[in-house]
Design a protein that fits this description.
Number of helices: 2
Strand order of the largest sheet: 6-3-8-7
Distance between the termini: 33 Å
Low-confidence stretches: none
CATH superfamily of the largest domain: Nucleoside Triphosphate Pyrophosphohydrolase
Structural class: alpha+beta
CATH class of the largest domain: Alpha Beta
Number of strands: 9
Helix content: 10-25%
Shape: elongated
Strand content: 35-45%
Order of helices and strands: EEEEEEHEEEH
CATH topology of the largest domain: Nucleoside Triphosphate Pyrophosphohydrolase
Number of domains: 2
Length: 176
């Protein structure tokens, strides 16, 4: 797979050929001085819990990790806070609003899409839903409310979500 920086062989400002990279996340044009840093993209996801402590999970409809379990969430758009992105993505994916969200932890991740691998910083929250009427919408084939200790960890889509799951369980006193 290719990192996004590998597609930049010419300066986006003056079109000069770029020299060999000194740093893996930066391009710098020797002709015009243009410098660009390739930083991770950011995503936000939540352990949405009902009044019984069950967590909302969805099955991914698309690659990567199609058919595997994950939390509601997605990428943060320009001009959005992580909390705004979390609320938007949850509404888009499962049709429910969030009444409350609290930061839990962050994890590093990589996400391959169309043969390009992006470095991602995943921000995880705990949240309460405004309603329990979750349904599969954009990017989900199904949704379910599950007891946290009953979730099969090997079915969770991404390593970052699995690691955050362990953090979530520890905060509840339920470490595996």
């Amino acid at each position: 797979m290719t990192a996004p920086i590998e597609f930049f062989n010419y300066c986006p400002r003056c079109a000069a050929q770029l020299p060999r990279r000194e740093r893996p996340n930066r391009i710098r044009c020797e002709r015009c001085g243009f410098t660009y840093y390739f930083n991770p993209v950011v995503s936000a996801a939540a352990f949405v819990q009902d009044h019984d402590g069950r967590v909302l999970l969805l099955r991914r409809a698309k690659e990567p990790a199609q058919g595997r379990l994950t939390l509601p969430g997605g990428f943060v758009d320009f001009g959005e806070t992580a909390e705004e992105a979390l609320r938007r993505e949850t509404l888009e994916e499962v049709g429910i609003a969030l009444a409350h969200a609290t930061y839990l932890c962050s994890q590093v991740n990589s996400y391959t899409y169309l043969d390009v691998t992006y470095s991602v910083l995943d921000l995880f929250f705990t949240a309460r839903p405004a309603s329990l009427d979750a349904r599969p919408l954009d990017g989900a084939t199904s949704v379910s409310w599950m007891a946290p200790h009953a979730v099969p960890i090997n079915e969770i889509a991404f390593p970052s979500v699995r690691t955050a799951w362990e953090t979530f369980l520890r905060t509840r006193g339920e470490a595996r």
